[in-house]
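A further point concerns the way the authors explain their paired sequence and structure data. Since the whole study asks how a given chain folds, the encoding of that fold should be made plain. A single example would do more here than another paragraph of explanation. An entry of this sort, consisting of the sequence and the corresponding backbone structure tokens, reads as follows:

_____
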Amino acid sequence: MNTSAHKFLPFARPNRQDGFTLIEMIGVLAVIGILAAVILPRVFNAITTSRVNGTVLGINTVKTAVTSLAGKYGSIPSSNSNNSRIDDLLVAEGLLEQRFTSKLGLQADPNSIALNVWTKGATGTWTVTGGGNFTVVNHIRSWTATATAPSTAAGRNFMLDGSTNLPVGSVVVSAFLHSVQASEARELSQRIDGDSMTAADNVTADNLGKVVYTTPPATGLVDVYVYVIHQ
């Protein structure tokens, strides 16, 4: 009996190697590219919005603390010095939990600069000692108002209504944000001041409202001053 008919023939194998073909790889990469183009901008926008909202919250907290300080002593102290920050006084008075911080901007280690010590004399005059050059870190400053254009006044002047300077000689408290991306500075202005008092683009100075800054340089990084309160 011929048993050869009962032998099983092996299945035929396709003539290909395991793995993706070039066309399949191109398709996968194309899908990844499309997803990245759609998702990444939204992620970065969400991060920026979080930074801006956190900064606004911090500034509002400082405003409440400064108001309490003025109620306690009858006035807001002023230093007119890059080596001082009034948020150190607010911490010492128990009105803030810690120095003002913000995720907007590039800065040195905030704790690398010594604390200020504010002292109120018998005549009501405040003096401040310690500290250092705070222009390299975000902080809260308290300076006397001038009539200088807000974008170049270093926090000494703001046109809150879009046209009128603060009274010369008044004490102005402002937040200093060091080396902020121009796009984030503009978004902060839109968040606080609205479109009507925000620079038209990311390469224009902002002189109006509570958020001001000079014309952003080629680096795209600009120091920003945000109005808190004045007396």
Observations:
- The mean pLDDT is 89.
- The two ends are 115 Å apart (CA to CA).
- The first strand starts at residue 116 and ends at 120.
- Residues 81 and 143 are 8 Å apart (CA to CA).
